[in-house]
Amino acid sequence: MSTPIAWPVRALSFVLYYLWQLIISNIIVGWDIVTPGTRIAAGITRLPLRCRTDLEITMLANLISLTPGTLTLSVSNRPPELYVHGMYAAEIDAFRESLYDMEERMLRGMRRSGEVGPVPDLPHHSTHPEGGA
């Protein structure tokens, strides 16, 4: 059960979390641009979603694309899923986990009940340019 104050607090918490992610992502990408060498290990993953509405799907897809180093490549609402490119996705499971963390925080902030549900099952189908899993 959610108290009347819990939902606005969760929404504000998500806004602060996302602003922090923007700052950190900008620093990481900016640092990689101005220093020699590169830490880029790009990858693409399919992300089945817990989002239920078009608004939730659109919001998550746009938040991902606004974050430096990530880009939503494809959006589907039936079933709800995204294909996401990451500049720093050497560990594809960790990359996917960070995306699910963002989705969970966003949904807790958007939904009055705060209920999100479990992460959908995902068969191991991700692509790396290097041919990794």
From TrEMBL:
Lipid bilayer topology: Multi-pass membrane protein
Sequence ranges of Basic and acidic residues compositional bias: 122-133
Spans traversing the lipid bilayer: 15-34
Chain spans, region Disordered: 113-133
Phylogenetic placement of the source organism: Bacteria, Bacillati, Actinomycetota, Actinomycetes, Mycobacteriales
MF terms in GO: monoatomic cation transmembrane transporter activity
Name of protein: Na+/H+ antiporter subunit E
PANTHER family: NA(+)/H(+) ANTIPORTER SUBUNIT E1 (PTHR34584), NA(+)_H(+) ANTIPORTER SUBUNIT E1 (PTHR34584:SF1)
InterPro entries named among the record's database cross-references: Cation_antiport_E (IPR002758)
Cell compartment(s), UniProt: Cell membrane
The UniProt record lists the keyword rRNA processing: no
GO CC, one annotated term: plasma membrane
Domain of life: Bacteria
Family: Belongs to the CPA3 antiporters (TC 2.A.63) subunit E family.
Entry keywords, A to Z: Cell membrane, Membrane, Transmembrane, Transmembrane helix
